[in-house]
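Fig. S4 source data, part A: sequence.
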Amino acid sequence: MFLPVKYIKYKLNSKGKYKIHSPYVFDLVSKCLELKIAPEDRRQIAKVRNSLKNDRRTIQIKDFGAGSHKLGNTRKISRIYKYSASKGVYARLLYQLNRHYSCNEVLELGTSLGVGTIHLALGNRKSRITTVDASPETQEIAREQAQKLGLTNIDFVCSDFHSYLSGLENKQFDLVFIDGHHDGNALRAYLKKLGPLTHNDTIFVLDDIRWSEGMLEAWEEICRDPAYHLTMDLFRMGIVLKRPQQAREHFVIKLRGVLRGMI
């Protein structure tokens, strides 16, 4: 389905906060999504954006996922930022979620250049952010950016997602951001592996749910899965929680600036 058609369908089904009757979702929409990025954090984020969009260095990429439709394995950092990095309303969402819910342990699967990572880290400096990526070249750029900002609450792990998750024990994540691979079957597998590593109120943020028909099919299947009682569609991203204490509900959330967040 052509992306603008998907967007029109999303807009027709989306709801503003005054049409939402779930207390949890109303709190998310009326409080979490209304949070402003602190002025000093905005300045830090601007430094990162300006640095990356003007970085003409070329690096080799190891891509274990579906890859990019527009980029090859040899990529200029400025082009990776243009086409792949979390930006705009969706990057802000990561900041807002971690600030509002004060998560202790955060997992990001897919570091890329670290833009989303830095939003998570700035959102709550008391959080421990573990970010995993199989490409040492892009992760080194992300590490550079974090060091420039003096962020010390990020652990960089160079690994494919499957190996990393298979080696974990006795870990409980409060927020999980899955931003890599872009394959529906892989997404289902990662969520299954994350089961014992998360709790009933863990917030799962799934990126690029409309990347491909396979991703959209996986998202729709997740929304029907009885293991998840709360699912929220924000067009590019989906939010999922187990929350067995509540009746199963699905929401299409109206998010301002969605189209700007897609480019």
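Fig. S4 source data, part B ends here. The first helix runs from residue 3 to 13.
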